[in-house]
Amino acid sequence: MPTVVALYALLAVAIVIAITLVSLSAHLRKAYADDRARLDRAISAAERFQALQPEFLEYLRRIESDANALQKIALQIETAVATLEEAVNSSISGAAERQSRATEGLLDHIDLQEERLTKTLESLSESLRTVQVDQPVGRQQREDIDHSKLRKEVLRQGPQIRFSVLRQWIAVNALAILHRASRGWTTPNDLIANIPPYLEPEAEILNDSVLLIGTRDHAERLAMPLRPLDPSMEFSEWFDPALDGQPMSPVPAILMRASGHFTLLSKGTHSATGLPAA
């Protein structure tokens, strides 16, 4: 009886060991299957990576090529900037040199023009000294003066030169203009009819009292009273009475026109007894 019980006990132990071994085997088999699946996935990933490796290497080569290209472009830009800077510096230097030469040439030209103007005025003054200032200038007297050279010189200069010559001319012939005014006139141009046309004279009358004479495209005007001026007139401030012993010929005042207003640059003189009656 005890022997049977022992056999049953051994059989039970064997069964438990068998069940444990079967269970352990199943667990190991499952773990092996999982490891195999993970290994298969790893192998598949390695295969895909290996397949993509040439493309990856090509991409890296492209990146390296693009970097080299960008470096070359940067070098080209740097070279172009340096070239441009050198060209700009050279141009600025050349422009400064040309401007300096042009300035020197302009100064020489101005000096030459001043010298020619001085000679022209001297020639004009010498010629006009022969004109009778107390009578209108006659045709024969005008023909005796050689205006040809003077006309060419004046026309070749600008408005400032014409105005300077006009001022000299009126300084000599002011009484002739006043004589015309005393005989009656219709328009201001009647009073300046004897001024040489090449001086391009322009005239206007202020308040029927003051004659303004200028030249085209020039803002300065010469002012001459046509009759005695009332001290209350603003025009009277432009002139001082001629002192005893001074020449009877009036000295025109010099005005500057700007925006319809006149600015006195130089006072003139007048003699009340030498002006036509109002």
Cα(first) to Cα(last) distance is 180 Å
- Taking pLDDT < 50 over at least 5 consecutive residues as the criterion, the unreliable ranges are 130-145
Which descriptor suits the 3D outline? rod-shaped
Characterize the main sheet: 5 strands, antiparallel
State the share of residues found in helices, binned by percent. 55-70%
The spatial strand order of the largest sheet comes to 1-2-3-5-6
Give the mean pLDDT: 76
Radius of gyration: 56 Å
- Topology order in helix (H) and strand (E) letters: HHHHHEEEEEEE
Kindly state the number of beta strands.
Answer: 7
Strand content: 5-15%
Q: Name the structural class.
A: alpha+beta
Number of helices: 5
Outline of this structure?
With 278 residues, this protein is an alpha+beta fold. The protein has helices at residues 2-128, 139-144, 147-156, 159-182, 188-191, and strands spanning 201-206, 210-215, 220-225, 239-241, 253-258, 261-266, 268-270.
Description of the molecule:
This protein has 278 residues and is α+β, with helices and mostly antiparallel strands. The chain has a domain at 130-274. Helices cover 62% and strands 13% of the residues. It contains five helices and seven strands. It has helices at 2-128, 139-144, 147-156, 159-182, 188-191, and strands spanning 201-206, 210-215, 220-225, 239-241, 253-258, 261-266, 268-270. A hairpin with a 2-residue loop joins β5 and β6. α1 packs across α4. The termini are far apart.
